[in-house]
Amino acid sequence: MKESNIRNFSIIAHIDHGKSTLADRIMEQTKTIRPSANNDQILDDMQVEQAHGVTVKSRTVRNLYTADNHQSYEFNFIDTPGHVDFNYEVEKSLAASDGVILLVDATQGIQAQTVANYRLAKKAGIKIMPVINKIDSQNAQVEQTINQLVALDPSFKAEAILKISAKKGIGVHEVLEAIVHEIPAPTGQLNAPLKALVFDSTYDNFNGVIASVRIIDGQVSQNDKLVLMMNQQTFTAKEVGFFQPDRVATKTLAAGDVGYIVTGIKDAKEVNIGDTVTTQIDGCTKPLPGYQPAEPMVFAGIFPQGDYQDFKAAITKLALNDSALQLTPETSDALGPGFRGGFLGVFHLQIIKERLKTEFNVDVLTTAPNVTYQVKTINDPQPVMISNPVQMPNFEQIEWIKEPIVMITITTNNESLSDVMRLAVQHKGTFMDMQNQGQLVEVVYAIPLSEIAYHFFNQLKSISHGYASFSTEFSGYELADVVKVTIQINYAQVDELTFITHRVDAPEQTQKIVHKLKYTVPRRLYPMPAQATVEGRVIARVDIPPLRKNAAVNGNQYSVSKKQALLRRQSINKRQATKSDIQLPQSVFNSLLDLDE
């Protein structure tokens, strides 16, 4: 296919605005797949994607389309997710695209991820083509949605905005024609040295890493001697091809094409997202700027409830196909061997947990997520990075602690502005800037990462009725008055419940935690204290009641012998505190996540 007839594009949208359904209709009308009643979100084939109604892993599909001008075109469609945790997947797709379809649900209008993804596309400098979906719905507000789009970007012309029903296929042909005429063709040079962007990768047990690539310049064929420029990793292309949507081998990928290269590399860490592939001999001299893969936002311990080896094999396989998931081996006294995982957010953690269950039948326990802190001790000239609260030094050894700060840009409407600003202040946000954008208001806050890593996204959606969106940019580390909170159950410290919080929040949070532990920790024959300590002082405590009534602790009729037995049991518990054998269910660890409820 000549380069002038190639179109590389993505679809960006808020969750459940019809992106995957439109992708199905495009594949049907280009005859990539046969029309069928079973064609329901084909690209969202993972069970967790179907359960949550959100794309998690982006996919690429080549479609061949014969336009009304009787010319044949190659449409390379690159799928994108919708949840804020997976913005890095959107950025990967946009890096390989020349244009995007901005899809908006006519029944809901512009919402959270609509604006966030629009902003990513503008930053990438690619063509944006607005399309309104679900116009056949009784609740459709087409004119209002058009006004919102024009307010979002004045360059959008109301009369040119396409109106479709992806579910029924209405207007999809017009979308295909608009792709031909509005999204620009690639501008690579076929005779230049090979320059290909790695924008995604998967792992195959037999073929090693399979790199998804956009060919910027030159061409690549099977058996070519290639090199990854970031770490000078050399390999031979075992196979090249494209997705339709399964892999289809071809002889050559040329400038403008989107496809894959089977590298044969067995170590997935050797293939970095954003890297540049070129030939070993006479290759390009300067790599593509690409983009930086997203760094993990939160960290949590993840431990098996069954066989460790099965769990290790399962989570290692997931990590091979998820470049954002970082794993470090970790051993817990209470939970045994496991991993400390780095995740994009709490939703990413939830997805990994569900995939382990649905795809590998592995049940796991996850500890409360935390962020990374920079800690300077009295005796160490250099600060250290702490991603596990248990590793936090004793308070008397600490000179200072710095926490990660992000600049958060929230876009909302005027009606929700006061509630949004109040939410940001409640999460220790510092106001930085405010700008009006037509009917929208954009406010910028500097806010600790720990304050937005857990429930902030859901709270923002709730108070703004799904309209507000936010994007973040790492700002650096700033001094913070934070403390390590340790939890003891029956006098034994439970490292997996240790967390770091702001000193001012510690009293209220610990009271909530110990009272939740009272109802989630499995009971025993004798009452067990659950207490929280900060800097060596107990600041919150409750007694977990026994399985049955005990005359020593219940009612007004005391039994001297049972009282003595209780005191002996408490003395034994204190002496054996370091050898606790309490089995903790997931509900105990969830206690730390539900403090805002």
Describe the structure.
The protein has 597 residues and is of the alpha+beta class. It has 5 domains: 3-182, P-loop containing nucleotide triphosphate hydrolases (Rossmann fold); 195-279, Translation factors (Elongation Factor Tu (Ef-tu), domain 3); 298-366, 2-Layer Sandwich (Alpha-Beta Plaits), CATH 3.30.70; 373-479, Alpha-Beta Plaits (2-Layer Sandwich); 484-590, 2-Layer Sandwich (Alpha-Beta Plaits), CATH 3.30.70. 25% of the residues lie in helices and 33% in strands. The protein has 14 helices and 31 strands. Strands 11-10-16-7-8-15-12-13 form an 8-stranded antiparallel sheet. Strands 2-3-1-4-5-6 form a 6-stranded mixed sheet, with helices on both faces. A hairpin with a 3-residue loop joins β18 and β19. The protein is globular and about 95 Å long. Residues 48-56 have low confidence and may be disordered.
Distance between the termini: 56 Å
Instruction: Using the 3D structure, state the CATH architecture of the largest domain.
Output: 3-Layer(aba) Sandwich
Rounded to an integer, what's the Rg over CA atoms?
27 Å
SS field, number of helical segments = 14
Beta fraction: 25-35%
User: Looking at the structure, what is the overall shape?
Assistant: globular
Widest β-sheet, arrangement of strands: 11-10-16-7-8-15-12-13
